[in-house]
Amino acid sequence: xxxxxxxxxxxxxxxxxxxxxxxxxxxxxxxxxxxxxxxxxxxxxxxxxxxxxxxxxxxxxxxxxxxxxxxxxxxxxxxxxxxxxxxxxxxxxxxxxxxxxxxxxxxxxxxxxxxxxxxxxxxxxxxxxxxxxxxxxxxxxxxxxxxxxxxxxxxxxxxxxxxxxxxxxxxxxxxxxxxxxxxxxxxxxxxxxxxxx
Length: 197
What we know:
Layout: H1 2-10, E1 20-23, H2 29-38, E2 41-44, H3 52-65, E3 75-76, H4 86-91, E4 96-100, H5 112-119, E5 123-130, E6 140-147, H6 154-177, E7 181-184, E8 187-190
Parallel strand pairs: 1-2, 3-4
Antiparallel strand pairs: 4-5, 5-6, 7-8
Helix pairs in contact: 1-2, 1-6
């Protein structure tokens, strides 16, 4: 979140006005950072036992309060550890981004770095993708590879992947803001600056 907001503040990402930072956890560090460092409104929506669309309807109402709609909004997930309902994903189709600490489709879900080390892969990384109704299964926009060292612990690999995440996620938001992403089926094509593929 901080990397994206910093990229907007610096002008690397243009034509984007952050509306709200929303968390399902009251203790999320990003809430204070968003408000104090970037002056972005924050909201907390704890689940309180609510699940699926019952919870997501409340999220939609918060987003719409800040004019984040399916026509003009972009939702960037960064540590929001909930699986959205089919209704929510349909409402914001191809306007929800997520970053995952693995080269999808390998190692979806939790503990991706641990999965990569245990499987013995030589390369892992991170993936920014659109959210669909599956688990880490949406169309892939960009990926960054990170070499897995024989000596790596989960924490060491996670730290190297995180550095790449902080670069690639703002890059994808910039591409989206510049209308340089085209989706054909599952394939995501990136337009160059002259709007050709």
